[in-house]
Fold:
Amino acid sequence: MTHSNTLTLFLPDRQQMQSLGICLGQILTPGSILMLEGDLGSGKTTLVQSIGEGLGITDTIASPTFALIHEYPEGRIPLYHLDLYRLEPLEVNELHLETYWEGIEVPPGIVAIEWPDRLLDWPDNYLHLLLTYVDEGREITFTPYGQINWASICNNLQLSGLVC
Ligand SMILES: Nc1ncnc2c1ncn2[C@@H]1O[C@H](COP(=O)(O)OP(=O)(O)O)[C@@H](O)[C@H]1O
Ligand SMILES: [Mg+2]
Structure:
């Protein structure tokens, strides 16, 4: 099967967004970086919370806006949830967030970044997710950059029934 380089899904309600997150939490491999772009309230944190559920994390996943970085090591693979909303690009630079995707100082896991536009140095390989408001629900467009096992992600989303 061939896959086009983007995938757009319509999630009519919060529950569908949660199903998507749970599926991603079950299939994503260590070293996956998710760049989550979208307006306030578009569902970025909801999606990350559900990824945590899919990983088997039982801790509550908070909105990290105040803490900036939350680490959840106890699921299938670690989850690192970053929210850069309150930061300026130069401040973000000083945090050396590449630590999270180099996988040397911390075990490799899923890195989910809200407001990644604050990041000056983007990694080479990542999945870009754009969340937008559509009618009462949300639309999400996935675009892979660099070496991402895109075919596998598409196949799994298809199997989950989320892609029609
Ligand atoms: N289809 C949907 N997907 C995700 N969230 C939705 C959807 N429909 C309504 N919502 C609501 O929108 C809000 C999304 O908030 P949140 O996930 O914190 O967004 P963000 O992190 O992007 O600011 C939640 O209150 C959620 O219940
Ligand atoms: Mg948020």
Summary: Residues 44-45, 63, 83, 114 surround magnesium ion (ligand 2) (CB under 6 Å). The radius of gyration is 15 Å.
